[in-house]
Amino acid sequence: MKMWSGRFRQSLDPEFERWQPSFDFDRRLLTYEIAASAAHARALKGAGVLNSTELIATLQGLERIGAQASSPAFLEDDEAEDVHHFVEKRLVSLIGDTGYKLHSGRSRNEQIATDLRLYVRAALDQVRTDLAAWCSVLLDRAQQAGNAAMPAYTHLQRAEPVLLSHWLLAYVEMFLRDAERLADCRKRLNVCPLGSGAVAGATLPLDRRAMAADLDFDQPTANSIDATSDRDFVLEFVSSLSLLALHLSRWAEEMILFSSQEYGFVHLPEAYSTGSSAMPQKKNPDLLELTRGKCARVMGNAITLQICMKGLPLAYNKDLQETQEPLFDATDTVLSVLPLVTGWMKAVDFNYEAMQKAAQSGFMNAWAAATYLVRRGVPFRLAHEQIGKAVQICLEKHCELQDLSLEELQSLNAEFNQDFYACLKLESVLAIHDVPGGTAPARVRQAMADARKKIESIREDVHAHA
Ligand code: ARG
Questions:
Q1: CATH classification code of 5-104
Q2: How many whole angstroms from 112 Cα to the centroid of ligand 1?
């Protein structure tokens, strides 16, 4: 039986009937639908609609449906309009007409709003767990890198040397922000729509607090109209995922560059690369390219959701059914990518030598050289000009600053002394960036310890909610 056939005289157009159901994709909400239905059943007992025997039969029926759900054949049902209809049909087939009592005082509008909150809550915690593992590997690699140096770029031109660990920590920061955004999103989503009815609130005296507590929500939603039409939590979640995917995409792009022969900073792990069907010598960065490519779908999903919502009058509209697939796709995409990039990061070989070499050429000590003069009282703009001139001489002579003689240097500024050469060494250049957040080795060690703590606190927070 359909959930709404009473007032209809005509049957549905067959094509429309095949086209409008959501069971194909919302079946993945089954466990949440069952949990929410059990909470509602207990509230119905409180409201005197179900007696104890009926409640027990209903809960046992729901439990059996949950247990059978692991078999794909069980979930084949051409007549089920959506997951809500499916559960009602199965319940009735298990416990008879008592099953039809479950829908007393509730609406699918509040059910789907509840199921989706439960889904997003679980997905969000899984993403946070995977993010912690990913950050942890980035950090392990930073720790292994010791004092290895590399060039840092601005405008994609060599700028200043940094520790490889410092550069890895830049990514850790981005992903820690993603984890924090998800934690923040979790706070707002953790309220329970059950008892909101179709739009105006339940028609029975249901204990909303008890239903919320049953499902580990912090409290019931405050307004039934908002509760049944709100998908902010989906948008917030998927927008956070799109930012996370964007970070992954930037990382992938940089790794692709670094793995090219032009940079030669990383050796692609064979386990995550493929060859060319035509060019026998090729090893291609497929994992990285697909990661970059998949970012597009996650961002696309975030935009789809926003456009879907932007013109909706209050409250529930069937358009809201269209918010499910972009949500699922964004979640699946991110959850499939994170473990893979983590594996890649564990497996990749850094070419420390090539990085170090690149960090020591191309005048990346020029700012440090100007700072040498500043410390001797030379106004920075003048020091900048004089080091610029020194660079000019080097360019003509095809050498580096440290190759200039003291006479050559002193012709630019009398303040230059023998100790200048020590300031140009890679270690000194790194060491003078001695501020919190800078690349001086001691600062980076501190930053690694701080990041390790933050990763641990993500894990603890997820664990506390499990
Ligand atoms: N499948 C629907 C959805 O995803 C469930 C809610 C249906 N509500 C309704 N009034 N037809 O939104």
A1: 1.10.275.10
A2: 7
